[in-house]
Amino acid sequence: MAPEIWSLQELINAGWSENDLAWETVSDQAVASAVGGDYTQAKDQAGEALRLARSSFEPIDPRLGTALANYGICLSLAGDKNALPSLVEKALETWRGTLPWISRMEAPRVARSSMFHLRMEALHRDTYRSRWQKRWNEMAADAQRRLAALSENNEIVVAPDDAILATWQRERPAMLNDTRKLMAASLLLLAPPVDGR
Question: Does the pLDDT value for residue 126 go beyond 60?
Answer without folding.
Answer: yes
